[in-house]
Design goal:
83 residues; globular; alpha+beta
């Protein structure tokens, strides 16, 4: 199995939002969020999908939860057939 070097988190400790690529017009926000809620609570109604750019932004309440999620899912999350 290929090992990945996980990028360092941003130095600004207020950043709790993760970028997610591979989003399409059929993506359901609640299904997308279900991949992340096991790592911590998300801000209510804060997931922003930008379908024409095929991406989304998922915001955690807690920075440590965001970091744990990122380090666990980086290069391992497949959604709609995309990494």
């Amino acid at each position: 199995m290929k090992e990945f070097k996980i990028p360092e988190p941003p130095t600004d400790k207020n950043i709790t939002t993760l970028f997610v690529g591979g989003i399409d017009e059929e993506t359901d926000v609640s299904v997308l969020e279900s991949h992340f809620t096991g790592y911590g609570k998300l801000h209510d109604n804060s997931t922003k999908m930008i379908v024409d750019k095929k991406c989304a932004f998922v915001s955690f309440i807690d920075r440590l939860a965001a970091e744990k999620c990122f380090s666990t899912l980086y290069e391992r999350l497949f959604y709609n057939g995309s990494k």
